[in-house]
Amino acid sequence: MSRIGKLPITVPAGVTVTVDENNLVTVKGPKGTLSQQVNPDITLKQEGNILTLERPTDSKPHKAMHGLYRALVHNMVVGVTDGFTKTLEMVGTGYRASAEGKTLTINIGFSHPVVLEAPEGITYETPNQTTIVVKGSNKQQVGNLAADIRAIRKPEPYLGKGIKYEGEHI
Question: Are 166 and 91 in contact (CB under 8 A)?
């Protein structure tokens, strides 16, 4: 049995999970709506506020899909209730960022400022000039956007200058 796949998903109050005939899982909550297409081999069963995923056989591909789709559905439930955040820190003289609405402007030592527009469902915050917080309900989208921001100027190994994740050791 898959260690991750066999764990039940508790659906909190205020969140609705619907599964249609094509195994399209839609999760609606206070922070938005997310949907994910689940492989037809995996079956979803909802009893009250408990959601479980089951696989037909113990073959290696079914075991892998079992854990994967359980994690994806769980991340959707967590995303529409609490949301996800990634915090980035800028290290370097004169490095600063500012968020205005859906726009993030980064001055990182180039001859021009780097301007990024937030996609739908993502927000930027700058608690101070050297910290960027990316927030959203979709874990994959938040992580990809944070990685794209970090890729603008990766931290260099000698002095650690650049954009790094909070708590990252260079």
Answer: no
* Cross-strand partners of 53: 44
Per-residue DSSP letter, 156: P
Residue with tokens 């066999």: 6
Please give the radius of gyration of the chain, using alpha carbons only, rounded to the nearest integer. 20
Q: Name the residue with tokens 């959601």.
A: 51
Report pTM.
0.88
DSSP label of 110: S
Cβ-Cβ contacts under 8 Å for 83 (sequence gap 6 or more): 31, 135, 136, 137
CB 95 within 8 A of CB 108: yes
> Residue 144: what are its φ and ψ, rounded to 5°?
-65, -40
Nearest to 93 by CA among 107, 105, 104, 81: 107
Mean pLDDT of 69-73: 93
Confidence of residue 3 (pLDDT cuts 50, 70, 90): confident
Q: Tell me whether residue 135 is exposed, middle or buried, using C-beta atoms within 10 angstroms of its C-beta: 0 to 12, 13 to 18, 19 or more.
A: middle
**Distance between terminal CA atoms of the chain?**
38
Q: What is the pLDDT of residue 143?
A: 96
